[in-house]
Amino acid sequence: MERCRLRDLGLKVGYFDPGPYNSICDVSGVKVGHYTLIKGRGKLIPGEGPVRTGVTVILPHDGNPFKLKVRAASIVINGFGKPIGLIQLNELGQLETPIALTNTLNVGIVADAIIEYMLQLNPDIGVTTGSVNPVVLECNDSYLNDIRGRHVKHEHVFKAIKNAKSGLIEEGAVGAGTGMSAFEFKGGIGTASRKLPSKFGGYTIGALVLSNFGRREDLTILGVPVGWELRDYMRSIIPQSGGSIVMIIATDAPLSHRQLRRLAVRATHGLARTGSYSSHGSGDFVVAFSTAIKIPHYSDEKVHPERILIDSALSPLFKAASEAVEEAIINSLLKAVTMDGRDNHIRHALPIEDLIEIMAKYGRLKR
Questions:
Q1: Residue from 74, 284, 290, 322 carrying the catalytic annotation
Q2: Averaged pLDDT for residues 43-52
Q3: Residue 63 CA neighbour count, 13 Å, CB half
Q4: Residue 342 pLDDT greater than 90, yes or no
Q5: Annotated catalytic, 315?
Q6: Is 284 one of the annotated active-site residues of the chain?
Q7: Ordered structural domains, the chain, with CATH
Q8: Which of 31, 139, 269, 324 could form a disulfide with 164 if both were Cys (CB 3.0 to 4.6 A apart)?
Q9: Backbone conformation region of residue 54, classed left if phi is above 0, alpha if psi is from -120 to 50, else beta
Q10: pLDDT tens readout for residues 236-280
């Protein structure tokens, strides 16, 4: 069966409706770009291949993110990871570059490329103003990829930024998700969104995930123990131990740094509903940002006025964020294709026909 998204199967997560594309790009101005690297097959030759990796970038708006920063916050669910830029992001409550996702050993190169991109865009950085804070997050794709080769280079990051688009974006084994695994199936990039009703402000919340975590028997979809039902499917594979997930949440709701941190925490609920318990080897990170308020880097004003949502209005956003994250994770599995990699390792795609049968067995679908 052709790869699809959850709603294509007649299934849906939660209560709120998605935006028109059911994508993080339903938040106006947000764009996503990928660059995918696939090369070689067979035996691992460290530094040469096989290559199954890439980079994904999230642009917070159409303008210059250094000159017009946005409110942002991050949380660490489990700190087994190597992100860059989160300390300053949380200290100042601001995002001033594209967010980049890649593999663990490529973080430094990708961060350097983001810095170079920002220097080209802003000749004043380091001359008449301060430095810049690149935000890069990662997961380990070494089961399929020659991670020591650090194959993602500056030009690939630049191309991902250039290729960034709004609307319907690619998911699954693409960009940073190319070599990732989830629940011992093929994982990768997934996205979803929620559009709140007008009585809750009509705000949009979008999520994008890089899924690379979980043991087979723990996979849960809409409360159904799908992983347990599929525990013997292709069991010749090497079990997945540890793993990580990066979750990016965007919204057009006018939120402060403190409120965005509270929103980011709600990603944990969506993650948990898919079967994660953040094992020892799992690095689980969330970044949330709002496009509602642009903070000028240069201003003659000593006070920057910001109108923000009252706390008592946050609950629908919290619910929407948890729903969008849960659906994004499931979409990352459903859209991913079977892929081989180093030393002939293989990650099989979640079998959709089997999934349909399981969901029917548990009363979630009619056959």
A1: 284
A2: 97
A3: 14
A4: yes
A5: no
A6: yes
A7: 6-298+312-361 (3.60.70.12)
A8: 31
A9: left
A10: 666 666 789 999 999 999 999 999 999 999 999 999 999 999 988
- CA distances to 102, 103, 124, 224 from 137, rounded to whole Å, are 7, 8, 26, 30
Catalytic option among 74, 142, 193, 282: 282
What residues contact 251, with CB distance under 8 A and at least 6 apart?
27, 203, 204, 205, 206, 263, 288, 289, 290, 291, 292, 317, 321
Give the separation between CA 192 and CA 23, rounded to whole angstroms. 4
By the 8 A CB rule, do 180 and 4 touch?
no
DSSP state of 239: P
Query: In the chain, at which residue ranges do the beta strands (DSSP E only) sit?
Result: 31-39, 51-59, 68-79, 94-95, 99-103, 135-139, 181-182, 185-186, 188-195, 204-213, 243-251, 282-296, 339-340, 346-347
* Matching residue, tokens 């979803």: 192
Is 278 tagged catalytic?
Answer: no
Task: Output Rg (C-alpha) for the chain, integer angstroms.
Answer: 20
Q: Of residues 74, 244, 276, 322, which has the active-site annotation?
A: 244
Which two structure tokens, joined as six digits, stand for 97?
């570059």
Structure tokens at 309: 């949502």
235: buried, middle or exposed (CB in 10 Å: 19+, 13-18, 0-12)? exposed
- What lies within 8 Å, CB to CB, of 363 at 6+ separation is none
The token pair at 40 is: 């070689």
pLDDT tens per residue across span 99-126: 999 999 999 999 999 999 999 999 999 9
Q: How far is CA 335 from CA 122, 171, 251, 320, 327, in A?
A: 37, 6, 24, 22, 12
pTM of the model: 0.97
pLDDT of residue 236: 60
List Cβ neighbours of 366 (8 Å cut-off, separation of 6 or more): 360
